[in-house]
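Friendly challenge for the regulars: who can give me the structure tokens for this chain first? No prize, just bragging rights.
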Amino acid sequence: KEQNPQQKGELDTRKNQKASNATTRPTTANKNKQQHKQQHNKAGTMTAAVMKTPPVQVGTLGRPELLVANHFHLALRPSRTAKIPLKWYLWQVTFPEDKEAEEAAAAAAAGRDQGKGAGKGKGKARKKKAEDEDADPPRRFRDAAIDLVMRRVEDAAWIYDGARQLWVRQDEQGAMVEIASEIQSVKPDICRSSSILVSFSPTKEDGDDQTQRTINLDNIFRVNLDDTMLVEKQFLQVALAGFRSKISSRRHTGPVLELISKGRRSIFPGRNRELFDLEEVSLAHGRQLWWGFTSQINFVTGADGKKSMVTLSLNMVPTVGLPEMEAIDFLAVILAENYSKSVRDRDSNTKYYADQMRKNIFPNDLTQSRLKSTLMSEAGLRKIKVSVNYFGHERKKQIVGISDKGADNLRFAYKEEGASNGTISVADYFKIRYRKNLTFPKLPCLALGTDSNWVPIELVKIMGGEHNILAGKMRQEYQGDVVKVTAMSPASRKNSIEKSIALNNYGPGASLELLGIDTESKLATVEGRVLPPPKLKGGKDTEVTIGNYSNRLTANRVPGFEIKWGLWSFAKSRDSSYRDITPDLDDLRDALWYSASNMGVKFARPSFCEVPEAAHEAFHSRHMTKWHREVEDELWRQCKQHGIHLLVVVLPEKSEYANQLRGFLKTTTETDPDFYKFGVVTQCVCYAGPDAGKGGSKGKGKGTSAKANNLMMKILPKLPFSPNGKGCCHAVELSQVHPLLQVPTMVVGADVTHHVGGVSIAGIVATRDRSFINYFSHILAQSTHDEDSQKVRTRQSQEKIVNLDVAMEHLMKEWREVNSGRLPQHIFYYRDGVSDGQFLMVLRHEYNKLVEAFRRVGGDDYKPKVAVIVGQKRHPTRFFKAGKAGGKGAASSSGGKGGKGGDKGGKGDQGKGKGKAGFECQPDPGTAVSGGLCDLGHLNFYLVSQNAGLGTAVPCHYHVLHLDDFRLPDKTKAGINDLQRITYDLCHLYSRSDKAVGYAAPAYLADHLAERGKDWLESQYSLSDTASSGSAEDPMKVQERVRWLNSKFSEFSKSQLEGRNFFL
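First reply, four minutes later:
Bragging rights claimed.
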């Protein structure tokens, strides 16, 4: 039986693991965790529950379908391994502190700090030490230092993971022993200060202090693998990444290509067409889309689910980056975009602004508040990494601001020679201090590092390559364009993957070749099964056809009263009369009313349909405090006067700024007691008129009708069933639910979002009835710092839901209240956002919290059957139908809407001919894979649930980490077929859409709820553009935000929105 450690225990364990290289095998990790035998909670002390992890199973439900996947089999080649040793030794790397260098640096810093405030330098040092007493040099310094130390060892005979591990091949072990005999001191070229000390020590085998840990490649490929071989898998992954940069810079024989390595990602700036046959793409604000690939080592099951094999998965990934350019040219690009309506206009305007600035003409446009706001955002100049060399050597800085004056007019306090009345201009300062006579003194300056360090723009260069890469979640300014150009057809993706694996000098196969490992060039074959779709029913038990049914739907459950509503527009207007906005607003009003009527929803004629003039003017003037007040006042007046149930708001665009308006509306109506007593829900929409919608080219009004139908799918589940604000509505239900769901059942979804002003926010939802489409909800905020000291950082983010028992207790009590006082017998817990390495830690904690909540609500004898299922969307695996080449295909940038137009044959790029070139190999909705390429050690499967008409279908990877003994009506034990069936059914019960979604709706909706908590917090504390800044991470401020959000949700129980799908 295993227990959860306390936070202090977890922190101590993490530090101990860091000191001992953190390479403990899973068996030892389990032994360490078994030492914790007590779980503390509010109710007292209890024994932890035992998780029951089911073994691998192969599904049999559905028709068989032969597939290929982007996995490539790996094998040892005897002819190579005869010459290359297969044994590798593991060494621990540490970076001891150089006390003498530290003291010298501290003395120099003290000298610089004289007159700047007492104790300023010392205070910073103490803060750094408190956060991390074992701080290592930055990653690039560590890499450079190890490169220098290991010069006497063959390149292909050592691998460094960038942290604390170094692997050395057997034939170079003697040289390594000699290197490790003393502490090495090196000074890389990139390190301008003191030298770096490096120490090596052999990592010992578990339970054996005399034997150094080794890896034998022969064992990996000759024995049957299991899920405990994490060290072996980690070694291959480190080798894949570690050799990649060496190969690209030292082994290639052709021309040098710029290769950027970011973890498992390889990026090739400006080489889209040459390497992958993909379009070169320019994005907003000077950014470019760069293609590359991500590669990953996998230990997976064979076709029978029993045998194991090693594969390399490879998938195409886009990255947003900046090419190297002069800062003047970068500013010209942003200025041009402010006035350009087309790419042609943008290019000519960019040249115009660049020419004007090089004629020393200050761009007066910088005085405009809207443009200045764009420049000061992270989508513009803020946080861009730049280089300057006026010191005589290159220095790297970040942009934090831009001046609205030229260098000859921008002045600051200065008391030395050259000052005038105690001030000096930036231009004169650089002339005196650095002997730089500016060529363009009229141009603005950039604030670098701090808001008082002004540097003339002509001396600044934007850094390209790896320095300004935007990875992960895209900003809204780029997201639309990125989605359009990255939604490549399955055939195009398959073709690019095959090109990537064939890159001799840069592909992952070249790295593995140095280990004596061959990479098969053909995509792996696997058998899938296509599940039959569920049957849905609408109002009056009418049968509903899956996909796009919103145009012809009578809803299943609608409000039993007339809905009062209103319509606002914040769309941009060319004049103060708003005459260009009003016709589109009237079209949308009428379309919404007719759409509601067709669905069976009684909409009154709108109480108002207008532009709220004062709020609109303040919003577009970007006076935040003013527009907050104006929006709140106008909203209060409309609620009091009309008693509306629904407010529809047209936003001007998809941008971070427009999102602030959306967040403020949600926060005000859902958390302010003056408003949530009305029970009004809001629906925001970006609407560009009837001709801009889908089908708009076919005739006026068609686009508006389609938009209105989609909007009603989002609005309906937010509306109450009864006039008192209670009950929920929905469009469809399952005609027949699975037998395991026919007993009292609760389906739970949970997710966590991070980095919201230093706060992690958990969203937990739970179905409220047998429709399995309406949900109760609970928001939890949690800190990344230890609450006792408020100084010690427990980890970068809290992925586990710390107080899940509190949320589940609340949800189960609500469930009992609307289900005749009963409690659920079956509980399916769908968890999103957990990576492989966090499975045990997160799920063991959360499962025990579930069990504790059961005990609190139902007593010691209440023990419902539980299934814990993790859904992962961020993985590289893709499937394609075997034998369906489908032609080359094309990325969607070639035309049409989101990739469809460019992939249809018959009439060129924009045509509507029969067939979908490039999509013949797309897997059908319902395709499940469990008989091969799945993880070892537990029940897991891939499921393609959505009809991916745009781009390549992304399967969700479901991991069943706990499964009680569920029994079907015939007393047989439930297994993988039942879990696949239930999961696929739930994918069709996403109430915001008339299509199946990519993963189980409970997890999807939990993500929505966590994002709603993020909206509340960002709106309350104005965090939208500073969530990751240093001030946002202050422990005291983090705790304040945690308390505020948790208290707001606690008060939410008084709202008419409580128990409804307000967060959709």
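The chain has a mean pLDDT of 82. The chain has 29 helices and 43 strands. Your move, everyone else.
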